[in-house]
Write a structure and sequence with these properties.
The complex is a heterodimer of chains A (389) and B (90). Chain A is an alpha/beta fold. Chain A has helices at 27-42, 62-69, 88-100, 115-118, 121-126, 132-136, 142-156, 162-175, 190-195, 223-226, 265-275, 292-301, 310-313, 316-319, 333-336, 343-354, and strands spanning 8-18, 51-55, 76-80, 107-113, 198-200, 203-204, 213-222, 234-242, 284-287, 366-370, 378-384. Chain A contains 16 helices and eleven strands. Chain A has a nine-stranded mixed sheet, with helices on both faces. In chain A, strands 5-6 form a two-stranded antiparallel sheet. Chain B has strands at residues 9-18, 32-39, 46-51, 63-73, 76-85. A five-stranded mixed barrel of chain B has the order 1-2-3-5-4. The chains are: A alpha/beta (389), B mainly beta (90). At the A-B interface, α6, α7 and β5 of A face β1, β2, β3, β4 and β5 of B.
Chain lengths: 389, 90
C-alpha cells in the first residue's frame, strides 16, 4: 500500500477571472491577487509559501513572485512539460512530491493568463506541435487538431455526436447557475448550439473553450497541517501524469488504438491504484474540455463507460448536478465557467467537495479531475473528503 | 535501413473541414478540408495534406491519390500533398 494517497490536501483556492482583454492588472498582478486569495481562504500567511508548481508554459517564474508575496525562502519551483493543459493535474503531483519528500511545505499550484502579456493561448500551445506537415495541410490550431480526431471518434467508432452536445449542455446548465461564470444567466438550447458558426468540423463555436484573462491558485500542504487550517481539508487521493508508447506523435501517426482517445491510457491505472478507488466510487468529475469531443473521449478513457456505451451514458441528464450519475463540470467548466487554461477545474474540484459549489452534489466525497485531454502528456487527479482505508 | 518508394495512394483516416480563418493558415481559403491519409503500400503509416475539390461526398475510408504541392507560409514554400478522391470512388 502506498502512502501517497491522502498525504497532501488542498487548503485554499483563489480565482480571478475576467473577459479576455479586460484584466485590470498585468498578468503577474492578477496572479499575485489569486495567490493572496488562496492564502486567505486557507488561513495561511503568504510568506509561508515555499514552493510553486505550474504547467502549460506559464510565464511567471516563481522567484519573481517572492517580493510581492513576502516569501522568505523559495525551496521548490517546477513546471510540467508541454504547452497544453495536459499538465494541470500533473502540477499537483509535483506539489505532492515536493511536500512528501520534505523539499517544501506550502506549495502553490497556479496558472495565469492575460492576453496582453502572454498573447493568445492557442498560438502558444501550437508552438509545441507545428511542423511543415501540419502547416502544409492547413492545420495550425488546437481546435483543428482535436476536430480531426473527433471525426475519427464519431465516424469510425460510431460514438454519437450527441454525446459532445450533452457535455456542452451540461456545462451551460451549470455555468448559467454560477455567478462567477461567463455563461451566468445565459440561455442555452439545441437551436443555439446547432446554429453557432462552424470552426473546424465537427466543432462549432460552442464546442470550443474560449480564453479568459485571469489566474487561479491552489495552496497545498501536508494532510496533518491541513487539518489545523481554516477550511475542511480536501485530500489528494491520487495523481498521475505521462504518456503511453504510441502516443504523442507529431505527424498524426499515433497508434491506431489510441488515435481517437484522449491519451489517458498511460495514467488511469496508476491514478486508480494510488487513490484506492474505482470509477464507480467517483461522485462528481471535472472533465477538462478544451473541446467537447475530447471530454467525451476523456470520460471513456477514465473508465466511466466503454466506447460502445458512450451514447447511452454520456447524456445530459446523467451529467448534471445534483441527480446525474456522473455530474461533470459543476462550475460550468472551461466552456461555460471560463477558460484560464484549466486551472478553474482544479478549483471547482476543491469547492465542490467543500460544499461551496454553485451546483452542489450533496454528500459528494470524491471528485475526479481529468486534466487537459489530447495533449502529448496528460494527467489526472482524484480528490476526496476522507482517505480510503 | 533503406528508403523504399511507395505509390501516393491511400485511404482517408481522419479529416476536418476548416471554416474559421486561423492565424497561420492565410494561404488557405475556408472552407477547406485537411486529411490524414493511411498509405495503401505502407499500412499504418499516415501522411497529411489537403483534399482538393471538397464538393464530393467522402469520409473515412475513401480512397485518395496524392500529388506534390506547395503552400506559402511565412514567405517560404512549404511542401505538402494535395489529395484527390480516386475516380469512381463514392
Amino acid at each position: 500500500m502506498n502512502n501517497a494517497c491522502g498525504a497532501i490536501a488542498a487548503a485554499g483556492v483563489g480565482l480571478r477571472q475576467y473577459r479576455r482583454g479586460e484584466s485590470p492588472l498585468a498578468e503577474r498582478g492578477v496572479l499575485v491577487g489569486a495567490i493572496l486569495d488562496a492564502c486567505e481562504d486557507a488561513g495561511i500567511s503568504p510568506e509561508e509559501i515555499d514552493g510553486f508548481a505550474t504547467y502549460g508554459d506559464d510565464h511567471n517564474e516563481p522567484v519573481r513572485l517572492m517580493p510581492d508575496l513576502g516569501i522568505r525562502e523559495l525551496r521548490w519551483a517546477s513546471t510540467v512539460f508541454g504547452g497544453g493543459g495536459g499538465g494541470n493535474a500533473g502540477a499537483i503531483g509535483q506539489a505532492l512530491g515536493a511536500i512528501m519528500s520534505g523539499q517544501a511545505s506550502v506549495v502553490v499550484v497556479y496558472r495565469a493568463l492575460v492576453q496582453g502579456n502572454s498573447g493568445r493561448l492557442s498560438g502558444a500551445v501550437m508552438a509545441h506541435h507545428l511542423n511543415n506537415h501540419m502547416i502544409g495541410a492547413g492545420l495550425v490550431s488546437p481546435a483543428q487538431m482535436c476536430a480531426i480526431r473527433a471525426n475519427r471518434l464519431f465516424d469510425h467508432f460510431d460514438v454519437p455526436k450527441e454525446t459532445a452536445e450533452a457535455v456542452v449542455a451540461a456545462d451551460y446548465y451549470h455555468g448559467s447557475r454560477n455567478p462567477e461564470a461567463v455563461a451566468y444567466n445565459k440561455p442555452f438550447d439545441h437551436e443555439l448550439y446547432a446554429t453557432s458558426r462552424w470552426i473546424s468540423e465537427p466543432f462549432r463555436l460552442l464546442d470550443c473553450s474560449r480564453e479568459n484573462d485571469g489566474a487561479g491558485a491552489i495552496v497545498f500542504v501536508s494532510a496533518e497541517r491541513a487539518r489545523d487550517l481554516r477550511k475542511k481539508p480536501i485530500y489528494v487521493l491520487g495523481v498521475a501524469q505521462g504518456a503511453a508508447k504510441g502516443w504523442g506523435d507529431l505527424l498524426e501517426n499515433d497508434d491506431d488504438d489510441q488515435y481517437a482517445t484522449s491519451g489517458f491510457r498511460a495514467v488511469t491505472r496508476h491514478l486508480w491504484d494510488m487513490a484506492r478507488v474505482a470509477p464507480k466510487d467517483i461522485d462528481v468529475a471535472q472533465i477538462y474540455e478544451n473541446f467537447s469531443a475530447q471530454a467525451v473521449s476523456s470520460i471513456i478513457d477514465h473508465g466511466f463507460c466503454s466506447i460502445e456505451e458512450a451514447g447511452d451514458f454520456i447524456r445530459f441528464e446523467n451529467l448534471i448536478a445534483p441527480t446525474g450519475k456522473l455530474p461533470i463540470n459543476t462550475s460550468g467548466g472551461n466552456i461555460a465557467q471560463g477558460f484560464i487554461h484549466g486551472v478553474g477545474t482544479i478549483i471547482e474540484s476543491v469547492r465542490q467537495l467543500r460544499g461551496e459549489s454553485s451546483n452542489p452534489v450533496p454528500g459528494a466525497r470524491t471528485c475526479l479531475l481529468a486534466g487537459g485531454p489530447g495533449a502529448p502528456i496528460v494527467s489526472s487527479a482524484i480528490f476526496g473528503t476522507e482517505i480510503p482505508g | 535501413m533503406t528508403w523504399k518508394s511507395v505509390s501516393p495512394k491511400g485511404c482517408i483516416y481522419a479529416w476536418t473541414r476548416t471554416w474559421h480563418k486561423f492565424a497561420g493558415a492565410e494561404a488557405f481559403v475556408p472552407p477547406y478540408v485537411s486529411v490524414v491519409v493511411e498509405l495503401s503500400d505502407a499500412p499504418g503509416v499516415r501522411l497529411l495534406g489537403t483534399l482538393a475539390g471538397t464538393d464530393g461526398s467522402f469520409g473515412i475510408g475513401s480512397p485518395v491519390r496524392g500529388r506534390p504541392a506547395a503552400v506559402q507560409s511565412g514567405g517560404v514554400a512549404v511542401p505538402t500533398l494535395s489529395w484527390e478522391l480516386e475516380e469512381g470512388a463514392e
